[in-house]
């Protein structure tokens, strides 16, 4: 009986170790993938600016002025995006309502609802958040 209990614990321990190794391998793989896809990290805009300024042979005064222009442009675009978000949300809501009136229940199940504000970055081939089958049951 003691041998039987011991072997059960060995199996449990082996399964736990295998699970933890798989988890660690998955985390390492994800980190390697992220570095491969985005090698420069969060400061990559600075790297691009430095490459551009070297190619254009800008002096320090020109670099400062160009950075100021880019900063001002970035702020203007952020403000424009913020101001237009409510209008975009309203247009998307109206579109969704109009499509709901036209499509039947089955077709609506396969049409994901429009988000009120578009995501800043779209990821290609991501899994669908809403399953058509789940939406049919609602």
Provide structural commentary.
- With 138 residues, this protein is an all-alpha fold.
- It is 75% helix and 0% strand.
- The longest helix has 43 residues, at 60-102.
- The two termini are 53 Å apart.
State the low-pLDDT regions, or none: 121-127
Largest sheet geometry:
none
Oligomer: single chain
N-to-C CA distance: 53 Å
Topology readout:
Layout: H1 2-37, H2 44-56, H3 60-102, H4 105-110, H5 132-137
Structure summary:
By secondary structure, the chain is an all-alpha fold.
Descriptive tags:
single chain, mainly alpha, 75% helix
């Amino acid at each position: 009986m003691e041998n039987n209990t011991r072997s059960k614990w060995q199996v449990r321990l082996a399964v736990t170790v295998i699970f933890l190794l798989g988890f660690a391998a998955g985390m390492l793989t994800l980190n390697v993938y992220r570095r491969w896809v985005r090698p420069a990290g969060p400061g990559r805009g600075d790297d691009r600016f430095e490459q551009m300024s070297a190619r254009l042979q800008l002096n320090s005064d020109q670099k400062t002025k160009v950075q100021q222009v880019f900063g001002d442009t970035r702020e203007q675009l952020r403000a424009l995006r913020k101001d237009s978000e409510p209008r975009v949300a309203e247009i998307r809501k109206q579109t969704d309502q109009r499509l709901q009136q036209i499509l039947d229940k089955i077709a609506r199940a396969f049409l994901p609802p429009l988000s009120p504000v578009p995501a800043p970055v779209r990821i290609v081939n991501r899994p669908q958040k809403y399953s058509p089958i789940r939406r049919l049951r609602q």
